[in-house]
Design brief:
4-stranded antiparallel β-sheet; alpha+beta; globular; 120 residues
Amino acid sequence: MHACTSPPTTAASPSPRAVTPAARYSGPPPPPGPNSSVPSRRPTAVADVPTDLAWTRAAPEDAQGPGPWIEIAFGPGELVYLRGTGDPGTVVTTTVEKWEAFAKGVVAGEFDHFARADGA
């Protein structure tokens, strides 16, 4: 049996929100509050998604086929729409402010502990 450990942090990129082994799972999270950075957990009905959105696919430049990619679109009213290419009918929404906070966290390495060590 392997012990659960947090990934090492470096002095160049400390993660203020590092997850400790004991904190990895403590049951279901509480519902997001009005100022939460968590995207909406309720899928948006397809009828509620504007039909004129310009979807941008997050995929490697050399990607072929439909792939397991994520697509993002910025819509009216400060809303950001996210969907997977495998199920484009399921759309999750968040706000521009929350999306920007998430993107900054990705750049800062706050989610690196979710990445597989083998890069797959």
